[in-house]
């Protein structure tokens, strides 16, 4: 009888242990599945807010925009503007947001070049980008316009771009923008191509700073929690910098 009692105690202990193990495995599986579902939901939510800027379509309406000095520019669909007037260089691009979320223009950098991906496969360093002083929002599925100006006579880039515009040479603009919450930061490379008196806008590359993007092998940027403003600050750029009294773009 003692042996039988001892066996039943052992069997009971083993059964309790096995039940606890099964419960732990089931709990682990449920938590893992829940975490996976949460990640999928987070990605889906981000995609619903992700902006993506391209040149506007040729059929899109002409857009007009005024700079702080009351200089007006206009761009038809698929076009931009590059002007050198009284020492100031005015740049503008007619844009279409083909993404699902509002695009907020954060900063930009321009170079007098064709901006070929084969010869220049990486975007400019973030610390070279000039913060936008004016809020420029491009609605999802609609058109908008980007603008930038250089007026500082001591700015070497102004002189370089002025010479390129006067000579009707291509100008490349890399635009840093984010979603409405300051996340999902993207850099898109646009090129203004002159033909006669018209500057046509083209696009060659997108860089996603928060994830690898659709192209394999791309290096991911800073963590998702870092906003566009924090990114600029981390690179030594003051997001509050202004272009004198312009209010258009830092120069």
Please state the structural category: alpha+beta
- The total domain count is 2
Regions with little confidence, pLDDT below 50 for 5+ residues: 219-225, 242-247
Give the DSSP E fraction (strand runs of 2 or more residues): 25-35%
Give the termini separation. Answer: 95 Å
Helix content: 25-40%
Task: Write up this protein.
There is one protein chain. The protein has helices spanning 2-49, 156-166, 228-234, and strands at 53-55, 63-66, 72-75, 79-85, 88-97, 103-111, 130-131, 137-138, 143-150, 171-178, 186-195, 198-208. A hairpin with a 7-residue loop joins strand 10 and strand 11 (186-195). 26% of the residues lie in helices and 31% in strands. The strands form two sheets. Strands 1, 4, 5, 6, 7, 8, 9, 10, 11 and 12 form a ten-stranded antiparallel β-sheet that branches. The longest helix has 48 residues, at 2-49. It has three helices and twelve strands, in the order H-E-E-E-E-E-E-E-E-E-H-E-E-E-H. The chain is elongated, with a radius of gyration of 27 Å. It is an alpha+beta fold and 251 residues long. The chain has two domains: 1-49; 53-234, no CATH class. The model is unreliable at 219-225 and 242-247 (pLDDT under 50).
């Amino acid at each position: 009888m003692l042996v039988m009692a001892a066996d039943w105690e052992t069997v009971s202990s083993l059964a309790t242990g096995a039940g606890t193990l099964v419960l732990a495995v089931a709990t682990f599986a449920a938590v893992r599945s829940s975490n996976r579902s949460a990640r999928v939901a987070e990605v889906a939510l981000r995609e619903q807010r992700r902006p993506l800027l391209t040149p506007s379509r040729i059929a899109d309406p002409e857009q007009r925009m005024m700079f702080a000095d009351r200089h007006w520019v206009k761009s038809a669909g698929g076009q931009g503007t590059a002007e050198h007037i009284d020492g100031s260089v005015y740049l503008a691009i007619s844009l279409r947001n083909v993404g699902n979320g509002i695009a907020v223009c954060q900063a930009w950098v321009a170079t007098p070049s064709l901006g070929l991906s084969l010869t220049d496969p990486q975007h400019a360093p973030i610390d070279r980008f000039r913060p936008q002083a004016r809020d420029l929002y491009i609605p999802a599925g609609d058109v908008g316009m980007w603008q930038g100006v250089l007026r500082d006579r001591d700015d070497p880039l102004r002189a370089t771009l002025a010479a390129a515009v006067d000579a009707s040479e291509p100008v490349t603009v890399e635009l840093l923008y984010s979603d409405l919450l300051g996340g999902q930061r993207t850099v898109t490379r646009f090129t203004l191509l002159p033909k006669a008196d018209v500057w046509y806008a083209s696009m060659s590359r997108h860089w996603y700073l928060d994830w690898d993007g659709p192209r394999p092998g791309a290096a991911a940027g800073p963590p998702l929690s870092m906003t566009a403003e924090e990114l600029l600050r981390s690179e030594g750029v003051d997001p509050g910098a202004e272009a004198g009294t312009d209010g258009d773009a830092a120069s």
